[in-house]
Design goal:
This is Cache domain-containing protein. It is built from five helices and ten strands, in the order ααβββαβββαββαββ. The protein has two domains: about 150 residues, Beta-Lactamase; about 70 residues, Beta-Lactamase (2-Layer Sandwich), CATH 3.30.450.20. The N terminus is likely disordered. About 40% of the residues are buried. Helix 1 runs antiparallel to helix 2. The longest helix has about 35 residues.
């Protein structure tokens, strides 16, 4: 899988204030890499199940134990993990989620039970949601959020997903959920590396974490020229440092508060 994308600015060996944004962006990237690394065993277990027993029983036997072990890793602070099948990827059902949740990191896991019959009144076609649709379309890993996850957590969440293939066809995605409040605790220290107002912002302009007055998680910075920043343009009063190939950048500048929209 290609993981190519924007790179974090290069730092010299002598840290200065100018290197703060690169160090902060690098910290978020490293934190995210730990979560994608944590998904590797889940991806391997899913591939094995698809090869040996591509059924709901196979998912329960081979994938569920790996998902629940991931939930038990309190360092990653994961509150949801599992496999979400593409339509008809399994032999005995058209739709399936082998997804497990915990109220808090390390709590007892519970399997998420949702309607999988497209004719059911509460059925939701998850293949249209960004955490599924983006990796399915691009073939690359993705982080969705911050968003309020009404399906699982009912609070601001980041969802990490990686595509899984069977005989070169998309079989679904493996992923994990993390509460944004857990990221905030870490990001306060990362943002301390930066002089002036700063915020980690998604490509869509949604704020993940901010040190800028009046700018909080979930705010949408509608009036800032973020698209131009992502294209590499110079914008007075604002500077963007990409967080590797993640769909996030660190935006620094006094103009941050002016772009806030709830």
């Amino acid at each position: 899988m290609s993981l190519a994308g924007p790179t974090v600015e290069t730092m010299s060996l002598a840290p200065t204030a100018a290197h703060g944004p690169a160090r902060a962006a690098g910290a978020l990237l490293a934190w995210a890499e730990d979560h994608f690394t944590g998904l590797a065993p889940l991806q391997a277990a899913t591939r094995r199940a698809l090869a040996e027993e591509p059924t709901t029983a196979g998912m329960a036997r081979l994938v569920a134990p790996v998902a629940t072990r991931l939930l038990a890793d309190t360092e990653l602070a994961v509150v949801g993990a599992g496999f979400v099948a593409a339509p008809a990827a399994l032999d005995d059902t058209a739709y399936w989620l082998e997804w497990w949740t915990a109220d808090e990191p390390g709590d007892a896991p519970q399997r998420l039970v949702v309607e999988t019959d497209p004719a059911g009144d509460t059925f939701r076609d998850w293949t249209t949601l960004p955490w599924f649709a983006v990796p399915a379309t691009t073939g690359r890993r993705h982080i969705t959020g911050p968003y309020v996850d009404y399906l699982c957590t009912d609070e601001y969440t980041l969802t990490f997903t990686v595509p899984v293939h069977r005989d070169e066809a998309l079989a679904g995605v493996v992923g994990c959920d993390v509460y944004v409040r857990h990221v905030e605790q870490l990001a306060e220290g990362w943002l301390d590396l930066v002089e002036g107002p700063a915020a980690f912002v998604s490509r869509e302009g949604r704020v993940l974490v901010s040190s800028a007055p009046g700018v909080v998680t979930g705010d949408l910075l509608r009036s800032l020229p973020l698209a131009r920043l992502w294209e590499g343009a110079t914008v007075p009063g604002l500077h963007l440092t990409a967080c590797g190939d993640l769909p996030f950048g660190l935006v620094v500048g006094e103009a941050l508060a002016a772009g806030r929209r709830p």
